[in-house]
Design brief:
heterodimer, A: mainly beta, 7-stranded mixed β-sheet, 4-stranded antiparallel β-sheet, about 50% strand, globular, B: mainly beta
């Protein structure tokens, strides 16, 4: 168990640019989640994958956001035409799902995005 | 729909004093409840999770949480605060499927030497 890995740790970009983040979950976990966290707030759900299928998407996830998990292993989150309001910490988490709702999330250390 | 409310966005305690962080849940069915801790510039780390039928749940680093169905609460406690406990604490609830987890707004714990 090497934990959830996220890259990059930090990303600074100019408004209007596209950015892509990567998440490598714990290898035996088939569930993967993306969350966004702004300063002083709790994580807000963005999207959820079970294997390669994207099963849930938050209304927070505008058309500029897209997430993929092509082979049911790593996942990418892309933000197109970034806006200053996109500045946040983007957290990835994985879960085995063995106990369904009682299977805890295991988080990576996040990618901090700053849009200038 | 499930949700959690954390009362008190900031809590300060003296080193060695009791820590009490409050969490109330809203759920139409028996909930799955969790407490997480977050240190600066890091992800969230699981402290403990509620186990159906239990009233007192023990977690890591000496933390415990008491489930009170009558009060819809799942407060986090630690008998004696340590400087290393200074962090942000989040209560979370999930539904039966585990497709979504809902987090509270967090409580920032300061430990005064």
């Amino acid at each position: 168990d090497t934990g959830v890995s996220q890259n990059p740790r930090h990303k600074i970009t100019k408004r209007g640019q596209n950015v892509t983040f990567r998440c490598d979950p714990i290898s035996e976990h088939n569930r993967l989640y993306w969350y966004r966290q702004t300063l002083g707030q709790g994580p807000e759900f963005l999207t959820y994958f079970q294997n390669e299928a994207q099963l849930e998407k938050s209304r927070l996830l505008s058309d500029r956001f897209s997430a993929e998990r092509p082979k049911g292993s790593f996942s990418t989150l892309e933000i197109q035409r970034t806006e200053q309001g996109d500045s946040a910490m983007y957290l990835c988490a994985s879960s085995s799902g063995r106990d369904r709702g009682n299977s805890p999330l295991h988080f990576g250390n996040g990618t901090r995005l700053t849009v200038t | 729909a499930q949700s959690v409310t954390q009362l008190g966005s900031h809590v300060s305690v003296s080193e060695g004093a009791l820590v009490l962080l409050r969490c109330n849940y809203s759920s139409s069915v028996p909930p799955y409840l969790f407490w997480y801790v977050q240190y600066p510039n890091q992800g969230l780390q699981l402290l403990l999770k509620y186990t159906t039928g239990a009233t007192l749940v023990k977690g890591i680093n000496g933390f415990e949480a008491e489930f009170k169905k009558s009060e819809t609460s799942f407060h986090l406690t630690k008998p004696s605060a340590h400087m290393s406990d200074a962090a942000e604490y989040f209560c979370a609830v999930s539904g039966n499927t585990g497709n979504q987890f809902y987090f509270g707004t967090g409580t920032s714990l300061t430990v005064i030497p």
